[in-house]
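Async update (no meeting this week)

Hi team, since we skipped the sync, here's where things stand on the single-chain job. The sequence we agreed to prioritize is pasted below, unchanged from the tracker. I ran it this morning and attached the output directly underneath so nobody has to dig for it. Comments welcome in thread, and please keep replies under the output.
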Amino acid sequence: MARWGRIALTAAVAGVIVAAFLTKDGMPKETSGLVKTHIVRQGDLTQEEENPLLKDAYPEVNALAEEYYEEAAKDAKYADSYEAEAVYTKLGPYENSYLVYVHYKMQIPDIYTKVPGLKTFYVEEDKNGKLIIKKEPADENVSELVGKTAMHEDVKALMQNVHTEYQNAIASDRALQEAFVDLRNAYESEE
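Output:
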């Protein structure tokens, strides 16, 4: 009986520890770097059920996406602003690496309707432990994973939803349609 009591106590303590690190949505809470867990990834992370698309799951990744779009707006020729609407992530091939899909909205000058879009990033930690966007990862594992995850049903559904939202925005605003013709002409004349 004492053996079963120890097993029940161990299970109860493990349950409390797990519950302490989960939010009501079942997503891990940030531990602010206090706990560093080395995750050994075994098997093929390209399987969708092993690597689900998570929305706004990592505050540090969300902040990085917002910073990216703030900088993009400063350098934009044809946009007043960009807003990161939602940040979707899948685990990357290495610890503390992510495939990031940012659903954003772009505001074109003098146009009421914002233009939705979707951008893919690869994010990993630099040598100082800070998350950075890798513009052109040289690692074959990253390129392969990006290609495979683009075929996941959850990523394809996200891409389709944003594409539909984009088509609806264009169809709903005549001024936006005309602005896109002007933008296309401006880009072509720059080439």
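Quick observations from my side:
The helical segments are 2-20, 59-75, 140-149, 153-172, 174-190.
The first strand starts at residue 54 and ends at 55.
Reply here if anything looks off.
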